[in-house]
Amino acid sequence: MFERFTRQARQVVIQAQEETRNLGHPAVGSEHLLLAALSRRDDPAAAALSRLGVTAGSCRTEVERLTDRGGSGLGPDDAESLRSLGIDPDEIRSRAEAAFGPGALDPKPEKPEPARGLRRLVPVRRARRGGGSRSGGHLAFTPRAKKALERSLREALSLEDRHIGTEHVLLGLLNPEDKVTTTVLRRLGTEPDTARATVLSGLGRTA
Fold it and tell me: What pTM, to 2 d.p., does this model score?
């Protein structure tokens, strides 16, 4: 599957790791892929979403709020909305805190196993001995992120494209099954189906 990714789509997957590190999160989620894809402002799919107010900056703000980092955090209404989607805000916060070093949380979250195909997409950089760098080491991909990338292949096939580009990665992320990206989109005033239709329209395509 991953050999069909364009150079731009591969860069999105790689940049998602940097987004994860910058936010201090322990593993790459679909939200980090979304931030990376939206950062490519010259991409027609990302440009289409920006017209809905869905940009890398606005999404990053909401992701930070979801993890209670750098902002006021979740209010009671926000937390209840997330719980109704099956998301435990305390668990999200705990996973983020775990990234800041051993002993920050008890228990420490289990490290997901990276997918074999993703190892070919993302260069592995070992942490330096004696303390590590924030940018060193390989970050695993969560099941949500892996499913989004799998959906990008199905999006390419449904559009009869022979490659997987940034637009297919974005379409794979704009799925109601992904509760985190759906929550981010709703907080920005839109729905996955609306965002998907906007992307397809911006590409001159139909579902």
Answer: 0.70
